[in-house]
Amino acid sequence: MTRVVLAAIAGAHGVRGEVRLKLFTDGVGSLAGHKAVFVGDREYRLERAGGTDKSPTARLSGVSSREAAEALRGQLLEVDRAALPPLEDGEYYHADLIGLPCVDGEGISLGAVSAVENFGAGDLLEVEDAEGKRALVPFRPGIADLTDGKVVIDPVFLA
Question: Is 89 inside any structural domain?
């Protein structure tokens, strides 16, 4: 089953085993709706997700000391892809874009999406061609459009 990363564990919060998180979601509320999460190959019950969107925290089943929480530092907190809410038209999860083929307007292969980044000004697709060359392309209408399971890219932006 495919998993999607929702957060990274940044360290311990307090002395009772709570963890501090770096969220990759819209906010702590989107994490709070999940009952089961994965850290590495281990499944945990998400007992609580709280704090603020700028300083989120969580309590995981079986993590009851500062030392146990600190041992999880740097690990990714994931959920099964099937546990995510359904999307509206025009919405997408970054995880669903990775691996999609990229073509130009004529259908000629330009590579595939290898990563999705967002540094605050919108999503950027990292496109890797057959030789391993990578380029960042703004995921904007007219530049990179999601169409029929492919990303149609204006090749001018692959310079």
Answer: no
Hey, what are 91's tokens?
């919405």
Are residues 23 and 52 located together in one domain of the fold?
yes
> pLDDT tens digits, residue range 116-155?
988 878 889 999 998 999 999 999 999 999 988 899 999 8
pTM: 0.72
Q: How many domains does the chain have?
A: 2
Q: What are phi and psi of 10, to 5 degrees?
A: -90, -15
Q: Which string of b and e fits 13-50 if b means at least 16 CB within 10 Å?
A: beeebbbbbebbbeebebbeebeebbbeeeebebeebe
Which CATH number do you get for residue 17?
2.40.30.60
